Here is the input.
Amino acid sequence: MKRMITVLIVLLLITGSAAAVSQVDLVILHTNDMHGRIEPDLDNAIMGMPYIAALVAQYREQYPNVWVMDAGDTIHGRPITDRLYGESTIEAMNMAGYDFMAPGNHDFNFGYDRLMALEEQMEFQLLAANVYKDDVQLFTPYSVQEVAGKRVGILGLATSDTYTTTHPDNIRDLEFRDMVSTAQHYVDILRSDYGVDMVIVLGHVGFGRNYPSTDITAAVSGIDLFVDGHSHSTLPEGEMHNGTLFVQANEYSHYLGRVYIDLSGDEPVMAASLIPAADAFAVEPVEAVVEYLAEARVEVRRRLLGN
Here is the structure.
């Protein structure tokens, strides 16, 4: 009986809000501003990577097209991440099945060269169109994917707040170019050169007062979905601004964001929601991720003790 109840909870968890679209061609699961909270903490409603990985697996069993995105400020913030200079975060994200990430300002805290080294370990794409060094783009600017017979473009953006929110030495000689003009340039490329049917911006930019993500869509048309971070905003059903749906999932993996997308028409139809940690805890965590984090904790202790 207990197993049957658990299965029913999981089914409700996965199908919740899907009825808002006629069909589900693509599911986007998203996180932002985890700040190193890769370990579960049931008392403080933090999923951590073992539960995120479990949810991702459940959704991929149910739907053929599921993308997992992170909007930055992820690899730094707790001893298990900081003492291993971000490696534990990337390995756990690989195990959870992430597909795309945009770098946040604190993802440069170990230095941009360390972030680039970690990029080599990523089994997902790190996207940022507006970060340059010596007039050369530092990261891949965008990705174009085929899904359900349609083309979807994903454009990455990194906040220029990075200039003042990490140590200057971490980003020495880096340039964070204007996000509005960068977005306009690449949306034009995605729409004109690739003929995409949908444009997603994955950005560590920030939503609401004193943050410019809605300024981007006020100036740039053709962005359907903005998966955002930096402001730690909680958007239970997303918010529409300037014809763009904005989504953000608070912080620390208290929530996993979810967007159901119907691509059958001329324009994508989307339904956004948040999965709270309390619901995620109804799913069994992925044991391989639990075991990896235990090994990482041992390595952190070894380094702290110097043996």
